[in-house]
Amino acid sequence: MPLAGLLALGLAATAHADGNPGYDRPGLGFAPAVLQAGAVTYEQGLPDWTRSHDGGTSSAQYSTDGLLRLGLGGPLELQLGSSWNELHLSGAGTSEHASGRGDTSLGMKFALPASGAFSWGLLGSVEFTDGTRALHNPQRQYLLGADFNWQWNARNTAGLYLQDVRAGGHDSQLLALDDGYALTPALNVYAEAAWLHDAVDGQGSQAGAGVAWLVTPRVQLDASARHRLSGHADEWEAGLGVSVYFGR
């Protein structure tokens, strides 16, 4: 899912004037800031898309990922996510199709107020196995992520994201670096590079870019794409999305 934490620091001042700390879409990582107590944000893929090759089999998946965020007060935020998926498999003379609801995830974000130009946050979540049989994970997945952001100046931000996912006794790690730039008070662009390691599938790397447009202080539209550079990783990942801050 679970998207760029660094964009939260580059959002227009109008968004912060409305009490909106930023969105977790798009990109890898999350915004190292939490909603105020009782505030609600909803983020939706329209959809997100992945394509990969494995052992002569090609797969393409379309996911309308949804994430509901609720401010609990202080440094805490509750997150609830799920998705609707379309999966297409082909290769070796076969073709398969599956569709249905994805697994449910429940997460908690911790983030203190920014200290000058620096901010950071932690996110822990569990993804259950309650999705459609053909699409759910074989075991529960436990995620721990940490996002660190630096605001270099009024327009430029940088971020470091670290993630570990444990499932079935195996761990998968991800390290991502981001650089973002505000073209206008409401239009942000970013580039990112990621390194992945899985105890079963091995290593891989990706690079990508995206854009986030703050249509109003409460509504953001986004678009992003990533491409595999080496090793074990999805060949392509891309997505469109909308995020809405409802306040309280």
Automatic annotation (TrEMBL):
Keyword terms, alphabetized: Signal
Taxonomy of the source species: Bacteria, Pseudomonadati, Pseudomonadota, Gammaproteobacteria, Lysobacterales
Secretion signal, residue range per the UniProt entry: 1-17
Name of the protein in its database record: Transporter
Entry keyword Signal: yes
Domain of life: Bacteria
